[in-house]
Amino acid sequence: MLGRVDYVPTLEAMRRFTELRAGDTPDELWICEHPAVYTQGFAGKNTHILAPGSIPVVETNRGGQVTYHGPGQVVAYPLIDLQRAGYYVKEFVFRMEDAVIRTLGHFGLTGHRVDGAPGIYVRLDDPGGHAQLAQRPQRRGDDGDRGRRPEPVFTGLGKIAALGIKVARHCTYHGLALNVAMDLEPYSRINPCGYAGLQTVDMASVGVHCSWDEVAAVLGRQLARRLAP
Fold first, then answer.
1. Higher pLDDT, 145 or 17
2. Which CATH architecture fits 3-129+155-226?
3. Phi, psi torsion values for 8, nearest 5 degrees
4. Which residues are catalytic?
């Protein structure tokens, strides 16, 4: 646990760790919290940053569009050698999402995946309900639409966790952010993850009140288990 740390020095430390690591360097998992900051993916569009005000915007080399980090959010950076772990990037993302879903489940919430929109979502009208989403990821059929994804539908959903990663020399950095108990207003100043009107929630706003430390501990254990070789 790193506690609350500034974003830019943490990003530089991740890059340095990844650049300098050797084949026998142990993997690490950094869990922290950041002061208020917007981060933009390397292919992000500035049009998704609407009114940042006094909150700094940091351009990064991760995938994805713009997101927000701030107090009350658990941020996890898995620094994993995928070649040694024995799985590929798609599986890495699935395992990270699975860790978030299991963490939410520990606190009585049901996390969902939305096809074509990485991250984890909850139903606003039934945060603990287990009914599957129609827009969940599914195997493509053989009717000529193979490989095509429908446009994500977020009606009735709130995004509670965001993902964005970078892989260099088979090694990962950046990671995921799970909203616990935040000031959510800064999300209204951006199109979260590039989606205009996407509602962003935290655990507190859907009825689960727990401490940052509690959630960080559970998420850390789940990531350690799910990302193991």
1. 17
2. 2-Layer Sandwich (3.30)
3. -60, -50
4. 193
